[in-house]
UniProtKB/TrEMBL annotation:
Domain of life: Bacteria
Signal peptide: 1-22
Pfam families reported in the protein's UniProt record: SBP_bac_1 (PF01547)
Gene source species: Kribbella rubisoli
UniProt entry tagged with the keyword Signal: yes
Record protein name field: Raffinose/stachyose/melibiose transport system substrate-binding protein
Keywords, in A-Z order: Signal
UniProt KW Signal keyword: yes
Amino acid sequence: MQRSLRYWSVLTSIATATALLAACGTSGPGGSKSSGEAATAWILTGPTEATFRASFDTWNKAHPDEQIKVQSFENDAYKQKVRSAVGAGQAPTLIFGWAGGVLKSYVDAGAVDDLTSDIDASTTSHFLPSVTKVGQIQDKLYAVPNNGVKPAVIYYNKDLFQKIGAQPPATWEQLVGLVPRFKAAGIAPITVSGQDKWPLLMWEEYLVDRIGGPDVMKRVLANAPNAWSDPAFIQANTMIQQLVDAGGFVNGFASISTKTGADVALLYTGKAAMNLNLPSAYQTIQTGDPSFLSGGKLGYLPFPAVAGGKGNPKNVVGNPSNYWSVSSKASDQQKKTALDYLRTGLETDDYSEALLKIGLVPPTTGAQAKLASSSNGPYLQTIYDAAQQAPNFQLSWDQALAPAQGDALLTNLQQVFLKQITPAQFSANMNKTLGS
């Protein structure tokens, strides 16, 4: 959905003011002999914030002349803020992102540097090739992995399944069949955050893949005429609305936010049976109720197969990782600091161990050897296997698409879940964004 010029003007002014204020701040732990040239990085609040901060603190203490100042922002606010800052030429030195269409828009605008000659094979060889590839545009490297591998899976409460005598669903028909059984027991079948929009997206991503296979979305990304009218989109959105009509989602899901972990809390407090989510759900449970994990009450399974569908049931959706890009507008000193950090300060053993501790699989080739020794070992192995064995790992659509298309997608999909538009209207609305 297109934003008004006034809206973007306000965002740009805020981003510019923030960047100017940041330049006047302190240089972080250890001080700096050239605080005006300190590099900057924006990160997300939530489970991984402490891990990122620890990495930068370690770097700053060891490199007093190459400081990196850090600011954190909530997920949705960050996505808008960073795009405005990039457009205004006021981006942080290290730009946190998801790659895909948003990264391509930065590359097309000349906003990020080509890292191909700066980050050589001695660095990239440590990452899983499939994850590194997502940070490339036309075979040139513009983004380096910085976070765990994040396929979406269904998390479920084993106690609630046992209460109604049910087995985890392997097919869509089985999942739908569980809805009346959980409702009869006074349990919400599925918890989801409808307020934040993006958690809804995983339902459509998986259904479209299971029904039509990866080529359906590839046609959208190629801007093929009327690509959003593919029967897989119509069928997927019809199935979503049927699930809504059946009461599959918790009452009031449209007002439930994932920012506070309220959606996942319904799972571990026994009020909802299932939650389709990224590994952030596991991290939320780890913080909210560790005993739920240590007591073996959490289960996790792949998204169910759809009868007659073309997609491989082993395909996954989500985020292969998150990534760091380097702003082309940064000073030479800031770029040097950022590149030195990416080469030697990012994927250290301590950083990998920190990711494992909070339930994330590092995007590195040597991660598998460390999984068994982790307290989160069985879960981490499941996530690792899902990512490694997937014939196709689809990047979240709101990031794979260009920014304007991604915004329109989230708005229209929320309207599908709320029964405000039909599947046909969704496709018609999204076809208008092709090529934008």
